[in-house]
Amino acid sequence: MRSLVWLLSLAPTLLGDVDGVRVVGQASAPAEVRGTDELGDVAWSTAPRVGARAILAVDPARARVVARAGDDPLIVVSGRGVAIAADLADASNAPLLRWGYWPYLLHAADRRIRGLPAERFADWPDSPVPHARLTSAFLAVAAGAALLLALAFAAARRRARAHPDEAARLFAPLAAAHAGAAGWSRPGFARPLGGFFLFVSATLLALGPYLYVTAALVPSRVQPFPDVDGAWAACDELALLMWSLADLGMTSAFVQRFAERRVRDPAGALEAAQLFVWWELASGLLLFCAGGALACGILPHTRYALLSRVVLLRSTVQLFGAFGIFTSFFQAAQRFHYALGLDFLQSRLLVIALPIPLVLAGRAIGRAHAAVGETTGALAGIAAGQLAAAAVAAAIGLALYRRLKLPLAPLAAAGFSRRTFVELARFGLGVVASKASFFFANTVEIALLTALLPAYPTWLGIRNLIATKLVFVLWFAYPFFDSGVPAFAEALAARKHALARYYVVRYWQFGHLFTALMVAFLVGAGRPLVERALGAEWQPVATYLPLAALVGLLLPLAWTSDAFQRGAGRSGLDAALLVGEMTLRLVLLALLVPRLGFAAVFVAQLGGIAVKCAASWWINHRWLLRLELHAWTSMGAPLASGAALYGAIALAAKLAPESRAAAIALFAGSAIGAFPLGFFACGAIGGFDGAALDEIDRAAELSAPMRPIARALARCARLGARLAPVAARPLALAADAEREADELARA
Q1: Residue 658 and residue 433: Cα distance in Å, rounded?
Q2: Does any domain span residue 480?
Q3: Does residue 189 carry a pLDDT above 50?
């Protein structure tokens, strides 16, 4: 018995008290764990799968099974002894040793042997939850931040009364900045397309390194624990849900109102900006307080106790949510190259690069201090890295703001009125309903997976790698679609309907081209990389990646509709459609998880977004604005270009050796060639009409500092169009849109 029972925390003499247990074999296949509460209040659903273990035969008259791995006894109690079947020295059981409840189980076993009851998990001093010292620190920070915010608001209110001419101080240099950049002062699709080229050019440079770092280097060398990713992802989804509620749609309302009013009512536009700034500061503090109270006072006493420290860390990041105000301001001012550049820098580069050294440092500290633990150290590194990314992006945003010679004082003043709040809140309620429904659906999805999938922390980690590291590259394009809110608002407010129709066609065209090329790249080159560069724990990613990427092909239709409806001032309609989509998605998920397992996540997403796209565009066409389809230009040619790229990558993968080095080489080559080949292919099959090529040329000139790459992509498009066997048909709508853009510029 002594050679087959591994009770690392107990004295060997205690093993003689184990009675009625004998070893009858061995097993190594991973098995789900389930258990009772005899050794304390353990949330067994959070337990990882157990690998190598002894198979124990238990005499029910002398011993009781407390936990099982599959159908095999895992933990057995007998008299004052405890037997654990798992081979704790085997690498397959490393996740068990990282499990937050494992030290508590050993402590409870020790207490049982001494004839003492185990205290509750939240009351055990070494449990990984906030205790008295951390709770006191949270309360002190919350009180100090609230006092500072109140004093700053009072000072800003006094300044607004003392300087009623703040609007002129802001809009005079903003108008001068626009006049100094002729391309940005003229309405038209070249402005959002210029931002599109900026992030496409940056993507071309960063895509290979980005996906290699996020999908191969980080999971294998930096943060190799799926359970850590799963815990952070769950809390991040909750934080985004709470932010969408606390934001009250003020971000979108500010962007829409500022773009709509900055010419005819600059004072009203400034009030919207001021309200947005102070709302961001206040909502960040509110979320920090709410999250801290949840983490310190409630979660430790529930089955989600292991998430309590994670919630506190994520709430601390949210305290500084106002760091993003410059990105939103540049979007509202339609300086899309700044807005998209900042978003790309923070959300796609800094948020990946900066956590790497901090996670490694956190893990090292955790290994050196058992009270912290390696997993908690990794989580603290993730939080610190995200906060550092936001701070660096805010500093760069401030530098760009000052480069335009814009003063900060008008934005920081608090001259808004109750009427401003009512107007923005009325618009924002529709936005918050749509955002909240999305984040609420993600939160409910996680809750359903925790209830229906055994070993759910691991599956949440798989989900997080697919959604936030791989398929997330499709979300690189979201700021481009979101730029449609001010563009549509400006055109529809001036009744330039041909221009609005033209925007729809072009957003579809370039959005579908981007997503089609990214899906081809992810499935063609990303899947072999996962199979050959990641460990066994991550291999389900390769299985489900094609299904997840398929959902991405419908994102351009969904996101363009969202921007169109918000730009038209119909945020309530957008919210209703999104609520319907999320409801259908959750119903499908609940029905399909028992049948399809983890695949149900993506099948449910596909069903929900397909129905939403069909319903939203039927409503848009029927009641908001009669639209023109131009199916080949806006959808057919971009998707065909993606199919051609996938065929080329798949052929290269088939011919390449089955090795890690070959997979990395294929990945890097595909990342570099995806956009040049895609733009060439789209031109060669007649996907770019003359007006589109002109838009591409103009946009390339607006995409500094990525102008050389943007010009190269523009040349690829023109070369393809010149070699096309059949020239693209002219887009008749383009001439009317050009005329209305000129009229809007003169106005």
Answers
A1: 48
A2: no
A3: yes
Side-chain half-sphere CA neighbours of 693 within 13 A? 21
Answer yes or no: pTM beyond 0.90: no
With left for phi above 0 and alpha for psi between -120 and 50, is residue 606 left, alpha or beta?
Answer: alpha
Show the CA angle centred on residue 556, arms to residues 555 and 558, nearest 5°.
Answer: 65
- 42 with 155, same domain: the answer is no
State pLDDT tens for residues 289-313: 999 999 999 999 998 999 999 999 9
Secondary structure string (H, E, C) spanning 545-571: HHHHHHHHCCHHHHHHHHHHHHHCCCH
pLDDT at 234 over 60: yes
Number of domains in the chain: 2
CB count, 10 Å around CB of 557? 23
- Beta-bridge mates of residue 73: 68
Q: Does one domain contain both 116 and 136?
A: no
**Chain centre distance of CA 99:** 25
What does the pLDDT read at residue 17?
66
Residue, of 79 and 645, whose pLDDT is higher: 645
Structural domain ending residue among the three candidates 80, 108, 123: 123
Sign of CA dihedral 287, 605, 200, 636: negative
Q: What tokens does 529 get?
A: 């990389």
Strands 72-78 and 64-69: antiparallel
Phi and psi at residue 66, in whole multiples of 5°? Answer: -90, -35
Q: Supply the range of the domain harboring residue 169.
A: 130-181+224-251+280-426
Q: Is the pLDDT of residue 642 over 70?
A: yes
The predicted-structure confidence for 75-111, as pLDDT tens digits, reads as follows 988 877 888 888 888 888 888 988 999 989 888 888 8
Two tokens, residue 190: 């070249």
Residue 238, CA distances (Å) to 3, 290, 347 in order: 46, 12, 18
**Of 66, 64, 63, whose CA–CA distance to 37 is shortest?**
66
